[in-house]
Amino acid sequence: MADPSDEELIRRHLAGDRSAFGALVERHQRRVYNLTYRMLGRPEDAADATQDTFVTCMRKLAGFRGTSAFTTWLHRVAVNICYDALRKRSREIPVEEEEHASEAAPGDLAEESATAVDVQRALLRVPEEFRAVLVLHDVQGVPYQDIAESLGAPVGTVKSRLHRGRVALARALRGEHGRGSHTSKERGTS
């Protein structure tokens, strides 16, 4: 027998089946964590944001209209929670950026770990509105239309942010600029 769809699990949850929401969490938890980690850059912040995402979803699930896929709505909730966390972080007293050292592993794994850490650090230097689109599209493979619905933006804006995000990520990987030193033209208004 096939696993129940997200929509079926939502119906069951709203009808009082306590295990249905747990099944939704189990199904989507890894993807939400990966999104929040790439947006926030710290495992503990990503874990908190993931938990907050599912708590918010549980509280607001009765208001989910189903006009878009559950995953689209879930991405929207997760990205908004990340934006809130980033705003809160920007108001905190600046602390030296944490160094997330990777454990040395034999052979190619050490090089892959180091590359992943470098990419994550560079990703954190990409403006957050571009970072969200980069993570959703390039990392998680979410289609443009679904990203547009998740972020409440036109598809053209999503494509523009993706391009600008890729440019900003490439520059960050080359070490061309520090956090927040992008020009207003690079940042764009879309």
Task: Summarize this entry quickly.
It contains nine helices and no strands.
Give the tally of β-strands.
0
Residue windows where pLDDT falls under 50 for at least 5 positions: 95-107, 178-190
Domain count: the total is 2
For the record, what CATH class of the largest domain applies?
Mainly Alpha
Query: What would the average pLDDT be, to the nearest integer?
Result: 82
> What is the correct CATH architecture of the largest domain?
Orthogonal Bundle
Distance between the termini: 45 Å
CATH third-level topology of the largest domain: Rna Polymerase Sigma Factor, Chain: A
CATH H-level name of the largest domain... which superfamily? RNA polymerase sigma factor, region 2, helix turn helix motif
Oligomer: single chain
Shape type = globular
Summed up, the helix count is 9
Describe the fold and architecture.
The structure is a single chain. The protein is an all-alpha fold. It has two domains: 1-91, Rna Polymerase Sigma Factor, Chain: A; 107-190, Arc Repressor Mutant, subunit A, CATH 1.10.10. Helices cover 69% and strands 0% of the residues.
Topology summary:
Blueprint lengths: L5 H9 L3 H23 L2 H18 L9 H22 L16 H16 L4 H12 L4 H8 L3 H20 L9 H4 L3
Helix pairs in contact: 1-2, 2-3, 2-4, 3-4, 4-7, 5-8, 6-8, 7-8
